[in-house]
Specification:
single chain; about 80 residues; mainly alpha; 3 helices; about 50% helix; about 0% strand
């Protein structure tokens, strides 16, 4: 069994983080209902980093590349943002 490829090049990791931040900023800015944008940026960023660290589909064995098959994020109405952290 082959182990997954781990990207340890500091430049690649830095660029991936920059891209994540850019995409999150655009997403959050386009959603006008969000009051504390920086808090949500941190929450979503932490979730994304946890997902990419732990989800490792094996496409050669038939796993799907679509992350939606492995991750479900639900919003629970009435909860506070600080309870999510």
């Amino acid at each position: 069994m082959n182990s997954p490829v781990k990207y340890t090049n500091p430049i690649s990791i830095f660029r991936a983080h920059q891209h994540l931040d850019l995409v999150l900023c655009q997403l959050i800015e386009s959603t006008h209902e969000i009051k504390d944008k920086s808090l949500w940026h941190d929450i979503i960023s932490d979730l994304v980093k946890e997902v990419v660290t732990n989800v490792d589909p094996n496409v050669k064995n038939g796993d799907c590349m679509d992350i939606c098959n492995y991750v479900k994020i639900k919003i629970i109405p009435g909860n506070f943002q600080k309870e999510i952290i």
